Amino acid sequence: MGSKRDMTQRYQDGMAIVLNNGKPDIFLTMTCNPSWIEITSELGLHQTPQDRPDLLTRIFRSKFEQLKDDVINKGVLGRVKSYMYVTEFQKRGLPHVYMLLILDTDDKLRGPEEYDSVVKPEIPRHESEPELYEAVLKHMKHRPCGVLNQSSPCMKNGHCKKRYPKDFCEETRQRNNSYPEYRRSNIKSIKYLYKYVYKDPDQVAMEVHRGTGMDEIQQYVDARWICAPEALWKIFKFTLYKLYPSVERLQIHLPDHHQVRFYKHQRITDVLNDNQNAVTMLTEFFALNQMDPHARNYLNREIPEHYCWLKGVKKW
Question: Which of 36, 54, 141, 302 could form a disulfide with 298 if both were Cys (CB 3.0 to 4.6 A apart)?
């Protein structure tokens, strides 16, 4: 998990959801806040949140489970038809989640007024929403930079990397093939969005030696950077990513060019003579069409919606 091949497969699974259910409606992110009272109240004398990655991990996961319940089960943003999320970890180790939501047809956001009912890109009014006002000022504001503060961490070559300050926009505008413009300009394509969610993990510098053989597993181990909260997330067996509905990965191959797995103690002749090793999802798709006239109404990629693949007996 976490290899380039694994990331590519999960990205393709996400695109399969789009093919079946349409484009995502909401891109939701959540980041661990080391100042949460649930974390700071448990710190010992002279401890910082970075000294307690177990707290960061458990508290964030608990809050994310609550967010999932609000969004997916209670439908606070609308009834969710499909979703996927990925947990990753920032450079300083804080857990961070990307979540894509595809809403039910009746609850989709179709215009600027509906966008504004969900997204609020302005500082709330203190008089009417004091709690939200304080939260935004404390956590969501981009601090002064540019000519006002050249030493700000966001500055690079004399300019803000986040492109602040943003231009004001009188009203939300719906743009073609992109996010709406909530006084902001944004990314353009669905494909980019899914690749961004399933982007590569953090890696470290490594040395590659020339040779006839390449140990892909060792290169993966050598190049991986794992912080303490990520290690604990895996030790606790928390879910790193999820996709709903599930996607069945179909085998596609030329005749007799499919993959066969076997143990090193097995004789190759026995493996080749085992008829079960010649059976795959694709060969059984054709066999299913011969036996079941109903199956002929569906393309190969549609079969998992109507039939279940039994791995033990290799049958649809």
Answer: 302
Helix axes 190-197, 4-21, angle to 10 degrees: 140
Q: How many helices (H) and strands (E) does the chain have?
A: 10, 6
121, 215 Cβ separation under 8 angstroms: no
Beta carbons of 263 and 255 less than 8 angstroms apart: no
Q: Residue 152 gets which letter from DSSP? A: -
CB contact at 8 A, 234 and 17: no
**Stated pTM of the model:** 0.75
Map residue 200 onto helix, strand or coil: coil
Helices (H), 100-243: 112-116, 130-139, 190-197, 216-223, 228-235
Closest CA to 95 of 260, 221, 228: 228
The pLDDT tens digits for 173-220 are 766 665 666 644 454 556 666 677 767 666 555 566 666 677 777 777
Distance of CA 312 to the CA centre of its chain: 30
The kind and range of the H/E element at 266 are none
Q: Other CB atoms closer than 10 Å to residue 131's CB: what's the count?
A: 9
